């Protein structure tokens, strides 16, 4: 047994211990970003928050950007899973489909403010690589909504509009609403925020009408 290993990890494999330290760093980074923002975050802050020495940071990440990239992908993957669960079940009409998906998203924004700050603001204009992750995530969210709407046959995008671009625009509009809500200190009631986003879907993609 490695006698230099921390006492709390005894009996666990080196890979397991490293994975746990990696997740500690990710969790700590989310806390720091939520409180201070990515631009103010240092490796030292993350390690202090995680209760680890800096050598363990570089065991898992080459730099701050690498940590940010993994944290962002982890959080957006979790959000996509949440939204998929909200959207996949059969519904009576298109309006309920939209409300289920948007409700799950705005619950995330309201109840996970650190993650919302990361996803909505802190990854913007960091680097070309991080920008690409952001754009890909937006594409993935648009594709998710589009795929599940098709599966339930509840939305119509009339030609000559480009369906992919319409869904990208819908996701972008919802993100803008969420950003405004957060920047305003969540002062608007959640119901008003939700109805604003529902209106955009109903007007743009024929959701919630006679579908």
TrEMBL record:
Q: Where is the composition biased (Basic residues)?
A: 1-10
Q: Which GO terms describe its molecular function?
A: DNA binding
List every stretch annotated Disordered. 1-20
Q: Where are the transmembrane segments?
A: none
DNA-binding region per UniProt: 42-61
InterPro entries on file: Homeodomain-like_sf (IPR009057), HTH-type_Tx_Regulator (IPR050624), HTH_TetR (IPR001647), Tet_transcr_reg_TetR-rel_C_sf (IPR036271)
Q: Which Gene3D superfamilies match?
A: Tetracycline Repressor, domain 2
Q: Could you identify this protein by its name?
A: TetR/AcrR family transcriptional regulator
What does the organism's lineage look like at the top?
Bacteria, Pseudomonadati, Pseudomonadota, Gammaproteobacteria, Cellvibrionales
């Amino acid at each position: 047994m490695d006698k230099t290993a921390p006492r709390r990890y005894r009996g666990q494999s080196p890979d397991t211990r490293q994975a746990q330290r990696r997740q500690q760093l990710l969790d700590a980074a989310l806390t720091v970003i939520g409180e201070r923002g990515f631009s103010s975050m240092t490796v030292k802050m993350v390690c202090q928050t995680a209760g680890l020495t800096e050598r363990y940071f570089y065991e898992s990440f080459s730099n701050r950007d690498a940590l940010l990239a993994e944290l962002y992908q982890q959080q957006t993957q979790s959000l996509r899973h949440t939204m998929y669960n909200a959207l996949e079940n059969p519904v009576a009409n298109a309006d309920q489909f939209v409300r289920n998906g948007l409700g799950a998203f705005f619950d995330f924004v309201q109840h996970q403010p650190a993650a919302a700050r990361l996803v909505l603001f802190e990854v913007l204009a960091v680097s070309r690589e991080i920008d690409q992750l952001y754009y890909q995530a937006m594409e993935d969210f648009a594709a998710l909504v589009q795929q599940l709407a098709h599966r339930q046959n509840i939305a119509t995008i009339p030609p000559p509009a480009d369906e992919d671009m319409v869904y990208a625009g819908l996701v972008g509009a919802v993100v803008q609403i969420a950003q405004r809500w957060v920047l305003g200190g969540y002062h608007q009631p959640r119901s008003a925020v939700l109805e604003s986003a529902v209106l955009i879907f109903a007007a743009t993609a024929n959701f919630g009408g006679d579908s």
